């Protein structure tokens, strides 16, 4: 977003970051084996290629290095204000500005407020009886303590999600005993990873179009994965194949069966690893599927009463995935005192995961329903950035001060998405972090990513209300009347949403 603002000659912006540096996910996650599940030539900006990725799925430190270099290349650092956690954002209608407050008490005014606070950055700490009294070492995978030596230790890893399947195989050869606590198994498919040869890197650099061609190929290979998502019967057939792969990799029949999910592949995020399943053939690794009853000072007791001695607990329990928390866990107020905490009380909804009715000039990157399970999120972010820049231009063109998406447009958009959602593999009955309690999926985009790009290429201006400060009282009254009618349609929407949710459950 920052780079594209600069490219458009807009230099009057600042970035508020609560931590000490840029990088977000790839600054925080440095656990052994940490890597992206999307190929690096795809998980990088289209406008800032890197010809030197060491392998198809580069490790976290290469991605972080790439982000640092890109920050330097486009001279972004001077716009960053580190150690500034945003604690409130309130839109002032009279002056058409957002008033942003950080935890240090500094107040910033801005015309546009872009919420790029990341979909997976708040560690989820499980509420397990006794965890606080544990006398050994405890840390979350996103806060890995590299000073703590795991050699020869008895380690318990809680959770079997994207992070745990990456770090467990790396630490298993080092530790004395690794107990992997699993609540629900994930489908883990082979990772088509390999190193790039020197000749390939040279070709990427010197042969015009070669790297782009490679990127296109990766894009369309990934995009082909939407087929099973939109055709659950195809996904069911793939499940059979994946089941065979588990049995092939895990020698012990019982362990293999406990590692096999009982839901259709793709319903929860598919994970990729070549090392995870074979790890269970090691003598010092045990898969524990009995729930944790209690954590004692130096041990873990499971529901079957068995006690396991533990020196270190690693929480591979993932992240808070509710946009109502990760997008903002602070006061966010829009028009006429509307508060996003209230508006999103039952369900987080936006328009193309980018704008929200009632909150003018508030833009989101990876807002509700713009996440992905099959391709690079960078592709979606770039589409959103273009869209936001077009919105800014539209405001300038109309000599307006702010624009707000219409309630009706947002309603129609979300009703359509939830209808599509019903035909996907995500609605085949599993409980995943894509869905909230009532079955509504507020996390992922239910179409191909190129459709998101196409649909956000131009703004549908009729879906927005443009406001100019200093409008006559009559015009303001008109707008007020519009908002009243929008509120009514919102009430209608709530009713319809309840119906959709009932159908889904
Ligand atoms: C282990 C892991 C693996 C992943 N693998 C993949 C993958 O394979 N493919 C994929 O597409 N995605 C993956 N993701 C998702 C990943 O989050 C996104 O790909 C991408 O990093 C999002 O970038 P971002 O800048 O939007 O968010 P982030 O990288 O999360 O950055 C958000 C930034 O906002 C800051 N921030 C948050 N709240 C505030 C506040 N109130 N005030 C000030 N600053 C704030 C944070 O400190 C952070 O620096 C993965 C995530 C994790 C954690």
- Count every beta strand, where a strand is a DSSP E run of 2 or more residues: 20
Instruction: Quickly name the level 1 CATH class of the domain at 84-118 and 324-474.
Output: Alpha Beta
Q: Based on the structure given, which CATH architecture of the domain at 84-118 and 324-474 is correct? A: 3-Layer(bba) Sandwich
Number of helices: 16
Q: List the strand order in the largest sheet.
A: 7-16-8-9-12
Shape: globular
Measured by DSSP, the beta-strand proportion falls in: 5-15%
Q: What is the fold-level CATH name, i.e. the topology of the domain at 84-118 and 324-474?
A: FAD/NAD(P)-binding domain
Helix content: 25-40%
Ligands and ions found: flavin-adenine dinucleotide
From the alpha carbons, calculate the radius of gyration and give it in angstroms.
24 Å
Describe the structure.
- The protein is built from 16 helices and 20 strands.
- With 505 residues, it is an alpha/beta fold.
- Among the domains are: 84-118 and 324-474, FAD/NAD(P)-binding domain (3-Layer(bba) Sandwich); 131-186 and 225-315, FAD/NAD(P)-binding domain (3-Layer(bba) Sandwich), CATH 3.50.50.60.
- Strand 8 (154-158), helix 4 (164-171) and strand 9 form a beta-alpha-beta unit.
- Helix 14 runs parallel beside helix 16 (473-504).
- Bound molecules: flavin-adenine dinucleotide.
- Residues 16-19, 24-25, 29, 36-38, 85-86, 116-121, 162-163, 365-366, 376-377 line the site of flavin-adenine dinucleotide.
- Residues 475-505 are annotated as: Disordered.
